[in-house]
Amino acid sequence: PGVAPPTPDYAAMDTAILQVCAEYNLQPEMYFKDKVFQTYEMILVRHGMMLVGFSYSGKTQVLQTLAEALTHMSRNRLEEKTSMKVINPKSITMDQLYGRMDPSGEWSDGVLSNIYRTMAADTTPDRKWLVLDGPVDAVWVENMNSVLDDSKKLCLQNGNIIQMIKSM
Fold first, then answer.
1. Which SS3 state, helix, strand or coil, does residue 167 take?
2. Which of these, 8, 5, 52, 2, lies nearest to 33 by C-alpha position?
3. pLDDT per residue over 111-133, tens digit each?
4. Which of 52, 29, 28, 27 has its CA nearest to residue 39?
């Protein structure tokens, strides 16, 4: 009580955000930049998060701007390069998303499990974000519980477990 946290120095990130906004013809309003800063602060302390809001409220653009700004900052060795893979989980079936076992017992990875497996195998220090961008659904969110809890593992129906790495 009575102790004020130090104000973070976002000068380099602010410059990078302005560059990204200029490249993509975005208006760098203070509200937008604040959301980028808040999202950055969240990814520093969480390995998974959910951005929620109305359609067309800027959630995707905040993530894209942050990823690009971090990549800009990586050129000066202030941050790590950031790559982002985006899936709309409601646009495909659960089998197409996570994978399925065919009648002969052979496993086929889904889109999400394939991307997750590729990211987990990538040993570069680059940040790797797997973004599920679309309406929240209880079914696909339930399947992500093991990834979002402290075990940080994607558990598939065939018994395979893919461990999240630090840069994911």
1. coil
2. 8
3. 999 999 999 999 999 999 999 88
4. 52
The amino acid present at 129, given as its one-letter code, is W
pLDDT value for 40: 95
Higher pLDDT, residue 74 or 50: 74
Question: d(Cα 104, Cα 113) in Å, to the nearest integer?
Answer: 20
Separation between Cα atoms, residue 151 and residue 147, nearest integer Å? 7
d(CA 136, CA 44): 23
Q: Where are the alpha helices (DSSP H) in the chain?
A: 11-23, 30-45, 59-74, 94-98, 111-121, 138-143, 145-148
In three-state form (DSSP H/G/I as H, E/B as E, the rest C), the secondary structure along 85-97 is EEECHHHCCHHHH
What's the CA gap between 43 and 73, in Å, rounded?
Answer: 16
Buried-state track 79-96, b at ≥16 Cβ within 10 A, e below 16: bbbbbbbebebeeeebee
